[in-house]
Amino acid sequence: MNSLCRHLHLRHAAGYIELGELLADGDAPVPENGRKLLQRALAELRHLPEPNRSGPVASLLEGRALRSLGEWEAAVSPFRRAAEAVPDQLEAWLGLGWCYKRLGRLKEAIEVLHTGLETAPSQPLLLYNLACYHSLAGDVSAAVGHLTQAISLDDRFRDLTGAERDFDPIRGDPRFLAATLVVV
Question: Is the residue at 113 inside a domain?
Answer without folding.
Answer: no
